[in-house]
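Q: What structure does this chain adopt?
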Amino acid sequence: MYIIKNIIFDLGGVLIDWNPEYLYLEVFEGDRKKMQWFFNDICTMEWNENQDAGYPIQQATEDRIKMFPEYEEWIRMYYGRWEEMLGGPIEKTVDVLDQLLKKPQYRVVALTNWSAETFPVALDRFEFLHHFEGIVVSGFEKTRKPFPEIYQLTLDRFGFKPEQSLFIDDNLRNIRAADEMGIQTIHFQKPNEFESILKEKGVEF
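A:
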């Protein structure tokens, strides 16, 4: 195993609690079946990821309304009330991040799938985002994970060697893509276990 010099954090699901259920469980009055139908058939994750790759939110909303005019009100809520999908920071992971940022042997950056139009909201809300050496935001780059271009862009931008870099993400699809590029990875699942897994990888605290 190569010595880790660079640590690359995903944001949503690792450091920030983002979940559209926070909004739509209220909208659908606790009806999970109806909410899941809406996510599966109307405002899908694939549709949302298109905006993460730079597609304009207003245009995406109008496109979807043309497809499903009877659900216009619910569709407009997706980005109209987007801030209600943001929970707080995932505190245990943020605590680990704070420790790593104090270690001079590590360079710490972030790589996130996030719309360029909504990311400023996160920057305003989460002060710790300003402590990274840099953040690669998919919406600004017009591509997203798991496409190899955004991983290569991140490595090139900061001058990282893949074998010396550790990428942390809660999405297994994104982890597998990083693996294929020779980047060391952690599939993030449980905040309570995160620090011990980092230590197993050789990260020093």
